[in-house]
Every structure is written in C-alpha cells, then in structure tokens.
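Hi V.,

Quick status before I head out on leave. The structure for the redesign project is tokenized and pasted below; the design run finished overnight.
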C-alpha cells in the first residue's frame, strides 16, 4: 500500500490534485489507515496514471469522467471479460476521442494560420530592414 505522497511521486500529480479528483468523482476514494491517511493499491496507482494520460491528451475533467465511467476496460478485457459487455463503453470512448481529435485539428489549423502570418510579417520586416540599411549607406 502506498501513501498519497508516494502516489504523487509515481504519477507526477500533486496530492492536492489527487484529492481533488476524489472530490469530484473522477477517482474513487481510497481506503484509509486508522489515522485517516489515504492508502493506495498498485492497481489504483495504475488507474491514476491512466487518468493522467487522458489529462495530458487535453481531455477535460468532464470528458475524463465520462471516459473512465466503467473503469479500466482494457484491463477487464485482458482479464478475460466479454468484449461485447463493453461495446457501448468503447463506442462512447470513440466518440469522445473523435470529438477531441476534431478540436485538436481545428486548433492545429489555427496555429498553422498564425505561423504563416508570422512568417509573412517576419519576411516583410526583414525586407524593410534591408532597404533601410541600403538607403543609409
């Protein structure tokens, strides 16, 4: 069993974030020692690492909550549970990821447009600077 500090070290999330995830229901509340300190099993640490990966993908906490509603489906399938039991869950996850990918692609297009505009301005200013240098000689 691991303390919240140890889980924090393993996952890169702060203890505050871990407690916040518990508070909003993204993460189930762990068992506690007699003194009230949280203790985590390795499987819970793996689940927190999964949440962190989803966060790093840029998913919102609402999307992460929806995405993980059925827990770690891949683990359940690898343990021999029937894939058909999770088809609706997998389809919902596909929807979430497809929507997220479309948003990312739109943001990439915006960034590409900004880069092009910046390159155009940079080229213009460099050209103007060359003309100023030639005129002053």
């Amino acid at each position: 069993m691991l303390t919240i500090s140890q889980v924090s070290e393993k996952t890169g999330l702060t203890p505050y974030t871990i407690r916040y995830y518990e508070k909003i229901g993204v993460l189930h509340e762990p068992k506690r020692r007699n003194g009230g300190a949280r203790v985590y099993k390795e499987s819970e640490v793996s689940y927190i690492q999964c949440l962190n990966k989803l966060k790093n993908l840029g998913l919102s906490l609402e999307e992460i909550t929806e995405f993980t509603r059925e827990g770690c489906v891949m683990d359940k399938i690898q343990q021999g549970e029937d894939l058909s039991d999770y088809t609706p869950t997998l389809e919902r996850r596909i929807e979430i990821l497809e929507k997220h990918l479309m948003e990312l692609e739109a943001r990439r297009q915006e960034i590409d447009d900004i880069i092009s505009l910046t390159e155009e301005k940079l080229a213009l200013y460099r050209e103007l600077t060359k003309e100023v240098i030639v005129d002053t000689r």
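Above is the designed sequence. The longest strand covers residues 38-40.

G. will cover questions while I'm gone.

Best,
W.
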